[in-house]
Give the backbone structure.
Amino acid sequence: MQHLYEYIRQFADVTQEEFAEMAKHLETVHCDKKHILTSKGQIEKYLYIINKGLVRKFFYKNKTEIITQIAKENDMVCSSVSFLSQKPSDYVVETLEPCTLFALSYENLQKMYSWGHHMNRLGRLITLDWLLQKETWEHDRLRHQPRERFIRFMNENSELVQRVQQKHLASYLNMKPETFSRYKHLLRGH
Amino acid sequence: MNEQILYKHYLETVHAYFKRFIDMSAEEFNMIAPYFEIRKFGKKTKVLKTGETDGYFNIIMKGLARKYLLVNKKEITIQLSTEGHMIHSEISFNLQKPSDCVIEAIEPVTFLSMSYHNIQMIYEKFPNTEKLGRMIITEMFIKKDQRDFKQLNTTTRERFLDYMHNHPDMLQRVPQKYLASYLNIKPETFSRLKHLLRPKRSAG
């Protein structure tokens, strides 16, 4: 929880007492690996903050799974558009490892917003952070060749490389598993 | 219409847009309204260049603008916007750092703009705008995610037809190469797909 407090304080002044009040609105969820948190067509009820474990978000293109997020400890994950709009989800959210999650329900979030302006400010700045991350990801994808993206990702996410199956990493980087394997030789030490 | 009437009309449009998200009386809106500025740019003018820090949040009142990235001397169009829509460099504006993209007027454009400084001031001075800001950003996030999803989940043909159906005037207003780039379709393929738009002749 301390990490979550630090995260929130990047965006707005929140006292320990206020944070304690916010924390009361989080539910702790334990689940196994390969547990479906949200299925396609379902309305996303929760925003999850990962305390322990890994979660992926994907959609089906015909029968192929396309992964758009791999979230680890302290990351937030949910079918975000469905959560924000309360419309059926295009995505599936599934655990990759056994997980402990803090879950904030849509109702509880709305309740927090009713506490006042500074909760709305916090919500505004966190949503903005999501938007900017999305924008940055898109620019990187357009600006860099697959090979370059691969090297950057592997260097910056060495921990995920150990924990996530290659086929999932390849899907997340929008490349064929064969291409992914071929690029791996680029990483070997000289 | 003279300028003054047009300006008033623009502000009314923005007030109506805000009211979709929060209750805001005419009195409340009138306190914010003076912070909007009218900015005009000629055809093909760069509103924002790479390396400049974007100081303005713009709502298009008239005209058409695009946003693009320059990658190995090639322009990749990432946004095409017309009347009633917003355009700015999200990253540069919000983080107040040099832009990695260019905003350019395709037609002469008139923006109703608010500076970064004034927006921050308004959030401080009128705290109920926090909710408005949150909801506008939420809508921007949803639209962006839906566009990303479409780019990944549709065929070239579907993307083409879907866009042309929803934006029938764009083929006349925007050079084809920009449309093709925006839809991530090769220019040759784009030309070929255009035959799908011709009305089918009835038999007989």
Q: What stands out?
A: Residues 129-153 of chain B form the longest helix (25 residues).
